[in-house]
Write a structure and sequence with these properties.
heterodimer, A: about 250 residues, alpha/beta, Rossmann fold, six-stranded mixed sheet, four-stranded antiparallel sheet, about 35% helix, about 25% strand, B: about 250 residues, two-stranded antiparallel ribbon, 9 helices, 2 strands, about 70% helix
């Protein structure tokens, strides 16, 4: 039996004003799985990611990420290097003067030697196809390139899990296609929060539907996304490719 | 619109390859020397020397020339009244307005000191990335926390300036024209409040993003700083002229 890489029980999270964003979620993800996290705005997708990446306070009865029990001692601080989070807005993530420095930021903070960091940066740049942009200033890149640099920054940290928050948001067709190809070639465990169901169908095998901070459905992506009444109940629509055509 | 926070292209500076620590030290000492000048004539010499340094090390004037213009305009606002407010030997009179020679000397001195220091600061900013300069200052013992605040603050200002540009375009797209009416002031107040809220929101996101990548407040870089004869030579050349000016100033002052 495979041990799940994410094993969470009774996860809850509230905002500072007391509003509950996540209410008693149970989540089990196996290594190598690509899972789409879908749901309307405010369903708790980003909050779930922030919890898994150990960036906010939460309550849970069990919280194991990649073999780390985050509820024990100071283990929560180890989560960011195991579960790397791609933010919705790449401008939040990119702040170094060059693409290369930005990608190196995470591995340097992990305390790796400069030789190892340079090797990781090289591999990450190659993986996202941005070798020739290494000396560019990140905020002068196009939206798609920024997203790829942000993704390279995560890959260079060599995490076990990638948490991708709306990765195809604001991307044009070419950048979106390039991102889908990168995700499909990547073997990491991936959780992808998205409203782009067509991209989810191409990159994920499983979908989890969140609404009001609760898991409302969990199953094969094609089954979930073809269920018209379920999606309608939560303010969503069946993607065009799954609609029966005349 | 040119933003004050647009990054200069340090790749065109002839000082780009020098170790940032020596640059920070050399420029800071030069700026300190300029701040202590007391003779207007030497102050003007300081401005000329600083300008020659800037032009010699950073030939691409596209970034620094408009900024020098704004700095000059900014300093003039403060020093123009000085000759008229300082008592002394009158050298110009127009109606009730009397300008004194002592006041003029004070104005020239303040102007030249301020301008020389600003020009040196521009040359320093243009010689490296902000991150390298902060790292250089960190290498000289400036605490990491202050360096982090400075570095992230600069990045934040840059993001805010972009945010401001977007909001300005959005206002203009809906027909807004600035005027002195109440509704215009109200719009500016709303815009300012919105900027503050967005700034808070943005800083929270950036904070989470750097935390997510394991930042723990210590500056590290892929580049290993190296001290060679070039750095030492630059440092001594950098302090030689300001020191000479300071000695000359002291000699003339006595």
């Amino acid at each position: 039996m495979i041990n799940p890489i994410i094993d969470i029980l009774q996860l809850s999270h509230s905002y500072a004003d007391g509003t509950k964003s996540i209410q008693g979620i149970k989540l089990q993800i196996n290594p190598g799985e690509s899972v789409a996290i879908i749901g309307p705005n405010g369903a708790g997708k980003t909050s779930l990611f922030l919890c898994i990446a150990g960036l906010v306070s939460f309550q849970a009865s069990s919280f194991n990420i990649s073999g780390i029990n985050a509820l024990e001692g100071n283990n929560k601080s180890l989560l960011p290097s195991r579960a790397a989070l791609l933010f919705q807005d790449s401008d939040d993530q990119l702040f170094c003067p060059t693409v290369e420095e930005d990608i190196a930021f995470g591995p340097i903070n992990q305390g790796l030697s400069k030789a190892v960091v340079k090797e990781r940066v090289e591999i990450a740049l190659e993986e996202v196809g941005l070798i020739e942009k290494r000396n560019k200033i990140p905020h002068q890149l196009s939206g798609g390139e920024k997203r790829r640099v942000a993704l390279a920054g995560l890959l260079a940290m060599n995490p076990d899990i990638l948490l991708l928050d709306e990765p195809s948001q604001f991307l044009d067709h070419r950048s979106r296609r390039s991102l889908i190809n990168i995700l499909n070639e990547n073997t990491h465990t991936k959780l992808i929060a998205t409203h782009d169901f067509e991209m989810a169908l191409e990159t994920c095998s499983r979908a989890i539907l969140l609404d009001h901070g609760k898991v409302e459905a969990d199953g094969p992506i094609k089954t979930i996304l073809a269920d018209e009444s379920l999606l309608k109940k939560h303010g969503m629509e069946v993607p065009y490719s799954l609609k029966p055509h005349m | 619109m040119t933003s004050t926070f647009d990054y200069p292209d340090h790749r065109t500076s002839k000082l780009k390859s020098l170790d940032a620590r020596w640059k920070v030290a050399g420029f800071l000492i030069a700026m300190l020397c300029m701040a202590f000048l007391k003779t207007p004539m030497i102050g003007v010499a300081g401005v000329i020397a600083s300008l020659l340094l800037l032009m010699g090390t950073w030939p691409d004037s596209g970034w620094w020339l408009p900024r020098i213009f704004w700095i000059v305009a900014g300093i003039l606002v403060f020093i123009l009244p000085t000759p008229f407010l300082t008592p002394g030997e009158t050298f110009f009179e127009y109606g009730i307005l009397k300008a004194s020679k002592e006041g003029l000397d004070t104005s020239v001195l303040i102007f030249s000191r301020g301008l020389a220091i600003s020009i040196l600061a521009l040359a320093l900013i243009g010689s490296s990335t902000i991150q390298d300069l902060v790292r250089g200052a960190n290498g000289f013992g400036l605490p990491s926390k202050i360096c982090s605040i400075f570095w992230l603050g600069f990045r934040h200002l840059d993001l805010l300036s972009h945010e401001f540009k977007r909001m300005r375009v959005a206002l203009r797209a809906r027909g807004y024209k600035i005027n002195t009416g109440f509704s215009s002031y109200k719009t500016i107040a709303w815009l300012s409040a919105n900027m503050l809220v967005r700034a808070l929101d943005r800083s929270e996101h950036v904070g989470l993003a750097i935390k997510a990548r394991g930042f723990h407040g210590v500056f590290t870089s892929l580049e290993t700083p190296k001290t060679t004869w070039r750095e030492v030579g630059f440092f001594f050349a950098m302090i030689l002229i300001p020191f000479s000016l300071l000695v000359l100033d002291f000699w003339l002052g006595n």
